[in-house]
From TrEMBL:
Gene3D superfamilies: 3.40.1350.80, BsuBI/PstI restriction endonuclease-like. It comes from the Bacteria. Residues 165-318 form the BsuBI/PstI restriction endonuclease domain. It comes from Longispora fulva. This is Type II restriction enzyme. Pfam families: BsuBI_PstI_RE (PF06616), BsuBI_PstI_RE_N (PF17728). GO terms for molecular function: DNA binding; magnesium ion binding; type II site-specific deoxyribonuclease activity.
Amino acid sequence: MNEQTAIDIGGDPYKQRINEASALLGLLNFDKERCNERSSLTLLALLGLSPEDPWSAAQQPMLKTYDIMAWLRATYDKDYAPNSRETIRRFTLHQFIEAGMVVQNPDAPTRAVNSPKNCYQIEPGAFALICTYGEPGFDERLQAYLAKLPGLQFIYAKERAMNRIAVTLPSGAEVDLSPGGQNPLIKKIITRFCPLYTPGGQVLYLGDTGSKWSVFERDALEALGVTVDSHGKMPDLVVYMPDRNWLILMEAVTSHGPIDAKRHGELKRLFQGSTAGPVFITCFEEREHLREYLKDIAWETDVWCAENETHLIHFNGERFLGPYPEPTDRPAI
């Protein structure tokens, strides 16, 4: 190795390689946390680089977070706990992506950020540089790479922005949702369901695959007696109809299930203080998908399918598309 990148930490090949990776991350202008052991090991996993391999033997595998952890367990005897996946993703991989060193989902750029198929790969320009780490001329190649990096970061940020889903709310406000997941269906709910069934409705909450609070009208919800618990799982979309004093709670079914009896109970507890009557609607892309969950749909809820947007499927109860009083408020039979 050249003088700038040489590290003297003794004879332990594991520590030697980890510290080399840490020094490399420092040369690439990452902060202290992105140069720690976790980040260094993550880099080595993304390069498929064992302690004995020369840097020129680096590879470019596409790895899920689970694959990274399994590889480190087998190659570096580093056994991260299962709940460390989120730490690796949020505090290492996210920053690697923002810096342009790692590409997320190069095989499917529109894949949802919370998809179990999410994978990561070293960006080609960064890979070409890293393969020469410690060789003559590395410092010059490093400076040339860093000089180009702001442009690369801009390009990748622009590509990510181009893949986002633009949605116009009933109020006329525009929001961008991350690609993939339930968000294409969310757009159909807002642009096709809401004009038909909730005219004049106000979107008080809109979840996003990549950001939990894409729209969150806290004051409006609290005015209706709803205090949102950050630990409570909100529905995908909440629309308030002031003329009827209804609160429409909608779940978009793609990767997660419908409003079944368990979810129905969760939502009723979450919105139990509401002065507006809650209405529960499960939304599907198509009826074929509904068949898979038909037996699970909770009674006293409704179902909407985007492919038949002018129809609703009503699951029993004494009223159609409306809130139900609590059992104690109903007249005795």
